[in-house]
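Folding Task

Wanted — backbone structure
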Amino acid sequence: MSQQPVLVTGAAGFIGFALARRLLEGGRAVVGIDSVNDYYDPALKEARLAVLRQFGHFTFHKLDLADRKPVEALFRDGDFGPVVHLAAQAGVRYSQQNPHAYVDANLVGFLNVLEGCRHRNTAHLVFASSSSVYGANTRLPFSVHDNVDHPISLYAATKKANELMAHAYSHLYGLPATGLRFFTVYGPWGRPDMAMFVFAQAIAQDQPIKLFNYGHMRRDFTYIDDVVQAVDRLIDKAPVKTKLDPDGELDPASSAAPWRIYNIGNNRSVEISRVVELLEHEFGRKARAELVPMQPGDVPETCADIDDLMRDVGFRPATSIEDGVRHFAVWYRDYHRR
């Protein structure tokens, strides 16, 4: 395994923090980047960074990836090898309220990262996509080999654009790039805008919660430790150029260029109401649930086909929804006591 430091963008974010901590605990140096914006409470982001700063081999730079000149300087002068790009403006519903934030962070910011990797001759760029790219697809489980040309939110469209931009750079400049479609990641240190945190907070404070699609939404909940295990295994597994069968069909998940796409999921769909039941048990009180219609940009169910990931890096999700919710609830109570 290469022992070069890893650049992790979005290091103060949920997945970025968890990956950086895993790498640091394994003895690998990490260079972290984050803008620490106020999309959600910056205090949570600062608390994550405080954990990472306990490691002597962690270096942090506060900067906005959409700000071209500082990003150019970082890639020109920084001491790191592989790049894991997890910084993004997240959130399906928020993309309807503030679309320009998604263009700035997810398109302009990603272009600056691609340019930095190109000029640096980065050996491997691993970047975050999203299960949202499946959009109007109805065939389950969602497969990376299926077409994803029908996004139903701007957030999903920017993530699909990231996959295409990375492919162009892989084709033009030989940049090895691996895109990861994350499925409903949850667990300790999770984002306050996601269902698990929102439901826990509402139950703990005896506030009402909205269950969209009248409580019949289903999601492929994927525990954070399982997610970062998969990402860690992929960092030093850069894709290589291949020759395609001239008479074969193009595969949406792979290319003659050194570019690949994987689903990072649990391969199991759970009804949202089941998650609420588990949280009710953990917090010892009933939820005040309001059954409401589906929201624009949402889909009724997600489930990941992870066969490719299992085959290529031996990934096996190990955390049940029952154990994962329990771990999250323990962390949530401890964090709020502090």
Observations:
- The first strand starts at residue 6 and ends at 9.
- The chain has a mean pLDDT of 94.
- The chain is about 40% helix and 15% strand.
